[in-house]
Amino acid sequence: MFKMTFGKVICLLSPLRTDHYAFSFSYGEERDITHALDKILKKSGYYCAVTLIPGQVSKSTDRYRIPRINVLNEPMFVFKTKLTPIYWWLYSIIR
């Protein structure tokens, strides 16, 4: 196991290739997730990676930058609203 740091992104990777399915970025911002990091994840056998960046998945989403929908202690209707395109359209305007 070895540790690599890219900005605020810390990766713990196995030196032996084992085919993992998904990597989860626990920290970091969009600018910290680079193409060099993509290559390391691919070489380590990861198929995809999930980020902390909020957003929806589409056909054009990079599989090494899959966004998440934050699930907090909130009512079910708020979570269901986050699954709709109108929520993300409004989010992009307000952000």
Keywords:
alpha/beta; 3 helices; 95 residues; elongated; 24% strand; single chain
The gist of it:
This protein is of the alpha/beta class and 95 residues long.
Question: Could you please describe the fold and organization of this structure?
Answer:
- The chain has a three-stranded parallel β-sheet, with no helix packed on it. It has a two-stranded antiparallel sheet with strand order 1-2.
- The chain is α/β, with parallel strands linked by helices and 95 residues long.
- The protein contains three helices and five strands; from the N terminus they run βββαββαα.
- The protein has one domain (2-70).
- Helix content is 27%, strand content 24%.
SSE blueprint and pairings:
Layout: E1 2-6, E2 9-13, E3 22-24, H1 35-43, E4 48-54, E5 66-68, H2 76-82, H3 85-94
Parallel strand pairs: 3-4, 4-5
Antiparallel strand pairs: 1-2
As residue ranges, the low-confidence spans are none
How many domains, as an integer? 1
Annotation field: number of helices: 3
Global morphology: elongated
SS content category:
alpha/beta
Q: Separation of termini?
A: 38 Å
Helix content, binned percent: 25-40%
Strand tally: 5
Q: Write the H/E string, N to C.
A: EEEHEEHH
Please give the largest β-sheet.
Answer: 3 strands, parallel
Mean pLDDT: 78
User: Order of strands across the biggest sheet?
Assistant: 3-4-5
Q: Could you tell me the strand content as a percent range?
A: 15-25%
Gyration radius from CA atoms, angstroms: 15 Å
